[in-house]
Design brief:
The chain is of the alpha/beta class. It is built from 15 helices and five strands. It starts with 5 loop residues before the first strand and ends in a 9-residue tail after the last helix. The mean pLDDT is 93.
């Protein structure tokens, strides 16, 4: 188990970066940032996916074969330096290239355990588990907190990224597929409701099919990060050191701001749980609760609202 790849995934804006970076503080762990990210910049993957939230399942498809081979290199710390040279467009890209190349070489030379932080790979978690023996850590977050985070960031989503994936219909119910096909002109809250339902519909399937995977709620870790991270480290066979504990206190303790500041990943984790209550209007909260209730009731009770 100590060498199995770890996949930290879940709905975007659910704390995957926060949790992934803390897990990567464990000795002998190498952090890999979003190989499924489709932005045209230097990446850990030689093959850039065609869609946000690519669903990789059938490697008999020619393009997905390329994705499969590329991911094998990702978890074995083989950086695609040739492909990435052509992706360098800015000074920032050049700095990213040098940083990630050097980190990958160090991780491979020290035989570190790969930790892939990637919410964009959520729908491909089963494929990664079956083909690379990855251990998924799936993170869920309260629907109102998720929607409020999208609202603050104004992260709009084009549902064509789901509509144009022919095999995506294997994952979802007919009603969700209909909602995706009709998703045009939605405001940010309506987008958030539909995205939350899509992700957590699949998450429920994962929980039923793979009870041995690790499932955590963002709120539970935020409420008591010292305790919950220690449990998570033990489940993953990672060493929970004094250095790790100090880092958790540094970026999650009560002295940190409750809202986003210059360092987005340094927060008062307890206060961050309920930020949605002042970010959203009463009308928006009611709409989110009504729109997600059928699925959210599996994760959250009335007390959580």
């Amino acid at each position: 188990m100590t060498k199995k790849p770890i996949l930290v995934t879940g709905t975007h804006r659910s704390g995957t970066t926060w949790i992934g970076q803390i897990l990567a503080k464990a000795p002998n762990v190498g952090y890999i940032y979003e190989p499924f990210n489709i932005e045209p910049r230097p990446s850990y993957s030689a093959v850039l996916n065609a869609h946000w939230f690519e669903y990789v399942s059938d490697v008999s498809d020619g393009r997905q074969k390329g994705v499969s081979g590329s991911f094998d290199n990702v978890v074995n710390f083989k950086y695609p330096w040739k492909e990435n040279i052509h992706r360098i467009k800015t000074i920032h890209d050049c700095a990213r290239y040098g940083r990630d190349l050097s980190k990958t070489l160090i991780n491979r030379s020290l035989s570190r355990r790969p930790l892939v932080k990637d919410p964009i790979a959520f729908f491909s978690a089963e494929w990664m588990h079956q083909n690379f023996d990855a251990i998924p850590v799936c993170i869920s977050r309260h629907p109102a907190a998720f929607c409020s985070s999208l609202k603050v960031k104004d992260w709009q989503f084009d549902f064509d990224h789901f509509r144009t994936q022919s095999n995506f219909k294997k994952l979802l119910s007919k009603s969700l597929l209909n909602s995706i096909n009709e998703a045009k002109g939605l405001n940010i809250i309506e987008q958030g409701i539909l995205l939350w339902n899509i992700f957590n519909h699949v998450l429920l399937q994962y929980k039923e099919k793979y009870p041995e995977w690790i499932y955590i709620r963002h709120e539970d870790v935020s409420r008591d990060p010292i305790k919950e991270f220690q449990i998570l480290f033990e489940k993953l066979g990672l060493k929970y050191t004094t250095r790790v504990k100090k880092h958790i206190l540094h970026i999650s303790g009560t002295r940190n701001p409750s809202e986003q500041s210059k360092n987005e990943f340094r927060r008062n984790s307890i206060e961050n749980i309920s930020n949605w209550k002042h970010r959203l209007s009463d009308t928006e909260i009611s709409r989110i609760r009504e729109g997600t209730e059928a699925i959210a009731s599996h994760f959250y009770s009335s007390d959580d609202w």
